[in-house]
Design brief:
Stationary-phase Survival Protein Sure Homolog, Chain: A; globular; 11 strands; 24% strand; nine-stranded mixed sheet; alpha/beta; 260 residues
C-alpha cells in the first residue's frame, strides 16, 4: 500500500510523527509512506487553496516534502506533482493537535486535506486527538491516537463505505480526551454542534498604537447533542463521522419547490 500523509500543524508537528508510525505499520514492509505537509502551521485554514499565489515545495528527505501552502495544497502537490506517476492508495491527514469534532470540522485544515483528497478521487481519513483534563498532562498527549489509530484505520478500510460518487465519502475521526487505556471503542456518528459558543475576536493594541484582533475560541468540554461526535468523545469513545464535500441542504430542497 502507498500512503500519503499530510496535516495542518506543520511538517515538524508531533502528531505527524504519530501518523507516520501508524502509516508505516499499515503499509507494511513492502509499502510506501509519503509525507507532503505544510512547511508551517496552517491550523484553521479549512479547505483553502493557494489559488492566487505559487507555493514553494522542498524535498526534505526521500518521500518527505514541505510545502509553503495549505493542507489542501499539499494534497494537490502530491497528486499532481510529487506522486503523479504513482498516486497514493490512501490519504491520512493528522494526527491533529486538538479535536475536529462538531463545528471545528468546518474550520479544520486537517479535514480540508481529507476533503480535497476525496474530491481528487482518493480514499481519505482525517484523524484528530481531543484534549481535555484527563489527557492534557500525559507525557504523550497523543496516547489514545497512538494506541488506537491503526485499528481505527484498518476497521474503516475493511468495513467503511467508500463511494466513487462525484462527492465521495471521506471520514473524520476524533480520538477522545482520555488515556489510551480508557478508550471505550468506536462509534459511527453525526457531526455535533456546540451551542452558545463559537469563534470571536479580542482586540489588542501594539506599543505603537495599532489595533490587532486575536481570534478566540471557547471551552471544548461543552456537551453536544446526544449521539454526536463530541458527545461520544467526551464519553471516552472514538468518533467516526462520514462526510462529503457536497454543501447542499438536501432536506430543504423539497420545501423550495414553490419558488420554481
Amino acid at each position: 500500500m502507498r500512503i500519503l500523509i499530510t496535516n495542518d500543524d506543520g511538517i515538524s508537528a508531533p502528531g505527524l510523527a504519530v501518523m507516520e508510525d501508524i502509516a508505516a505499520e499499515l503499509a507494511g514492509p513492502n509499502g510506501e509512506v509519503w509525507v507532503v505537509a505544510p512547511a508551517f502551521e496552517q491550523s484553521g485554514v479549512g479547505h483553502c487553496i493557494s489559488f492566487t499565489n505559487p507555493m514553494m515545495i522542498a524535498e526534505m528527505a526521500p518521500r518527505r516534502f514541505a510545502v509553503q501552502g495549505s493542507p489542501a495544497d499539499c494534497v494537490l502537490a502530491a497528486k499532481h506533482d510529487v506522486m503523479k506517476n504513482t498516486p497514493p492508495d490512501l490519504v491520512l491527514s493528522g494526527v491533529n493537535r486538538g479535536n475536529n469534532s462538531a463545528e471545528n470540522a468546518v474550520y479544520s485544515g486537517t479535514v480540508g486535506a481529507a476533503m480535497e483528497a476525496a474530491l481528487q478521487g482518493l480514499p481519505a481519513i482525517a484523524l484528530s486527538q481531543y484534549y481535555g483534563p484527563r489527557n492534557k498532562d500525559l507525557d504523550d498527549k497523543f496516547e489514545a491516537a497512538r494506541q488506537h489509530g491503526l485499528h481505527t484505520v484498518r476497521t474503516l478500510l475493511d468495513k467503511g463505505v467508500w463511494s466513487q460518487d462525484d462527492y465521495g465519502i471521506f471520514y473524520n475521526v476524533n480520538f477522545p480526551p482520555v488515556p489510551g487505556s480508557e478508550v471505550l471503542g468506536l462509534r459511527a456518528c453525526r457531526q455535533g454542534f456546540r451551542r452558545d459558543m463559537g469563534f470571536g475576536v479580542k482586540p489588542h493594541h501594539s506599543p505603537s498604537g495599532r489595533k490587532f484582533l486575536w481570534v478566540t475560541g471557547a471551552p471544548q468540554q461543552q456537551p453536544t447533542a446526544e449521539g454526536s461526535d463530541a458527545d461520544w468523545n467526551l464519553k471516552g469513545y472514538i468518533s467516526v463521522t462520514p462526510m462529503r464535500a457536497d454543501l447542499t441542504a438536501h432536506d430543504v430542497l423539497d420545501a423550495l419547490t414553490m419558488i420554481e
